[in-house]
Specification:
This is F-box/FBD/LRR-repeat protein-like. The chain contains four helices and three strands. It has 119 residues and is an alpha/beta fold. Helix 3 (77-83) links the parallel strand 2 and strand 3 (94-97).
Length: 119
């Protein structure tokens, strides 16, 4: 095993252990509604952090992920699909690719306009 790989594994394990040990008693994550993560490459410590947020943020509505273009080959879709499998404390929580977020906002706006015209 290369020293760099061992170091990376040790850091990831330390981060994962720290996140698992957290007990948010002040309710700070109960107010979290949106998360925007930039340059996401899908390394284990990032995945553990997202898993922790999804499991803890009871009011979360949207987690927008911007994949790191230099680290992912499929535009981040495989990472997003894996993240979507994680358990969530909030039934409203959606995980989206922020590169597609603009199109999603336009679509929602058009749908709301159509609904308004029909009422």
């Amino acid at each position: 095993m290369h020293p760099f790989q061992a170091f990376t594994f040790d850091v990831v394990e330390a981060v994962a252990e720290f996140l698992r040990a957290q007990k948010i008693s002040d309710g700070s994550l109960t107010q979290l509604k949106t998360v925007d993560m930039q340059l996401f490459s899908g390394i284990e410590s990032e995945m553990e952090f997202v898993k922790y947020l999804l499991a803890s943020a009871t009011a979360l509505e949207e987690m927008a992920i911007t994949p790191h273009a230099g680290s992912v080959s499929d535009g981040g879709e495989s990472i997003l699909n894996e993240l979507k499998q994680f358990p969530r404390a909030s039934p409203k929580a959606e995980i989206i690719n922020s590169e597609k977020k603009g199109l999603r906002s336009v679509y929602k706006h058009i749908v709301s306009l159509i609904k308004d015209q029909n009422t």
